[in-house]
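Whether sequence alone determines local backbone shape is best considered at the level of individual chains. The sequence in question and its structure tokens are set out directly beneath this paragraph.

===
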Amino acid sequence: SKKAFLGNDVELANKVIADEENVDILQSKIVNYLSALFTNESLTEHQAKEVAGLMHVATDIEHVGDYCENIAEYAIIKNKKKYWFSDEAYAEIYECFDHVTRMMTSSIKALESGDYKVALDVKEQEGEMNRMEADLRKQHMIRLNERACSPEFTVIYNDIIHNLEKIGDSCDNMAEAVLTDVNIKAAE
């Protein structure tokens, strides 16, 4: 979605949209499988909590797919309407993409390894992402007041930043699943 949006690549945007359908299908199958595990009465309390956490993680990953699809759709609109952003706005959007990419990479690493320190770092990065969204909205309003950008781009700019922030929220939720699992294991 980053390349589609920043590179005005409609073909790539359409690929993101098609891939998101696959993410929906996978999420459904994963949740159905995990739900079936609950019918197995041999799950320990810890295992049941872990399976429930994995169901939430699958849903958060599906939400990331939804947000990427939204961004891809904005790429198509931006291209169709020939919207352009100032260099400053592009740099801000690029920075947000990079930030959530780091968050997603760290979230996956935390999930794979169970490393609570990496999970804590994701949670810290999510706070930074929230501040970044608020700051960038203010910066955009300044550009609007200075007539440095067109008002018609405001909705897409704000929605891109917001969708990226929502990806950060999903990463935070995944990190929380790791921390919850670590706390459950510690309590046992």
